[in-house]
């Protein structure tokens, strides 16, 4: 792996880490978080589903946990980098 590709991998992982961390932090402060849909055929639902902590606590905390886990995973990827066995 070339150093440029490793640097690119680390930058993309760091960007994804910042995105997930900001989403988690703003979700905690505002007490609501946007839902990330895994349905690739229905793109219209992405921006309309907001989970509030008081009305839908289970979905809210599941989304918060997934975003926080994604942030930590991307941070580990940014620190470790792309490791290939020789």
Features:
86 residues; mainly alpha; two-stranded antiparallel sheet; 2 strands; 60% helix; 7% strand; elongated
Kindly report the average pLDDT value. 85
SS element count, helices: 2
Largest sheet: number of strands, sense, barrel closure: 2 strands, antiparallel
In terms of DSSP E residues, the strand content is 5-15%
Helix content: 55-70%
Count the strands?
Answer: 2
Name the quaternary structure: single chain
Q: Give the neighbour order of strands across the main sheet.
A: 1-2
* Rough outline: elongated
Structural class of the secondary elements?
mainly alpha
Structural write-up:
- The protein is mainly α and 86 residues long.
- It has a domain at 12-29 and 52-80.
- 60% of the residues lie in helices and 7% in strands.
- It has two helices and two strands, in the order H-E-E-H.
- The chain has helices spanning 3-30, 57-80; strands at residues 32-34, 50-52.
- Strands 1-2 form a two-stranded antiparallel ribbon.
- Helix 1 packs antiparallel against helix 2 (57-80).
- The radius of gyration is 16 Å and the shape is elongated.
